[in-house]
Amino acid sequence: MNWYVVYTKPKWEKKVADKLKQVGIECYCPLITQIKQWSDRKKKIEVPLFNSYVFVQLADSERNSVFQVAGVVRYLFWLGKPAIVKDEEIEIIKTSLKAPNISDVSVSAIQVGDKIKLESGAFSNQSAIVQEVSNNYYILVLETLGCILKIKYK
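The chain above was modelled as a monomer; its predicted structure follows.
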């Protein structure tokens, strides 16, 4: 069974995860503890690591069963197909969040100027600098090979 990413209504991540568990769907909503300050007090609260995302593990044939839960909007897609998250990546998130010395965690998208390492394909293990990000493609500069790579996706 694969892990998929379900997109939820804003601020519904914990509710959706609870309801998915109630109907028997394996899910994971990574939470982090933050200290929020109001005018009269400070309070520790648990907030989702990924806004509007909940990971679900189910068979491909059962994917539509998540839509019986209120708050589920759609699946997250990558290259025209529902995004699949590897078991190892879920485990890395779980173990990383259990580490006692973590004080702050943030998630951000790939931006122009970021240095990344390509992990698969013909240019595997090559470092690249993001030159442009679009809805349909990335343009990466591979300095060690002296070329520019344009990656299109659907």
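The two ends are 24 Å apart (CA to CA).
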